[in-house]
Design brief:
3-stranded antiparallel sheet; two-stranded antiparallel ribbon; 26% helix; globular
């Protein structure tokens, strides 16, 4: 597919997981957001206004982010236990590995952006 008929491939938005630090397509991540009102929530549509943090749709990454406090640090706010529980249950329901979760690779190796 090309963007605007320019012959260039479409750019796939990528974000970095706060737990494993790997760069993966945004569609493969959960997004938590701290809107201006201040209450952290899971952003299902990935469109809410506010400070966001991304974590892989992998149970291991969700557990690591929770254990290390990576989500709180990225959002600069405490995350309620109910939000973390909901996030863990969503990851368990998906129960599929995220792209590039090979422990032998270094962060950023499994997904690269095309040159501009």
């Amino acid at each position: 597919m090309t963007a605007n008929g320019s012959g260039q491939p479409r750019r796939i938005p990528a974000r970095q997981c706060v737990a494993c630090r790997k760069l993966v397509p945004r569609s493969s991540l959960f997004r938590l957001v701290r809107p201006p009102s201040g209450e952290v929530a899971l952003d299902e549509g990935q469109r809410m206004n506010g400070r966001g943090a991304y974590v892989c749709c992998d149970v291991g990454c969700v557990q690591t982010a929770t254990r290390r406090g990576a989500l709180q640090r990225a959002l600069r706010h405490t995350v309620r236990e109910e939000v973390l529980t909901h996030l863990a249950s969503r990851a368990a329901a998906l129960a599929r590995p995220s792209p590039g979760h090979d422990p032998a690779t270094q962060p950023g190796e499994e997904f690269s952006q095309p040159d501009r």
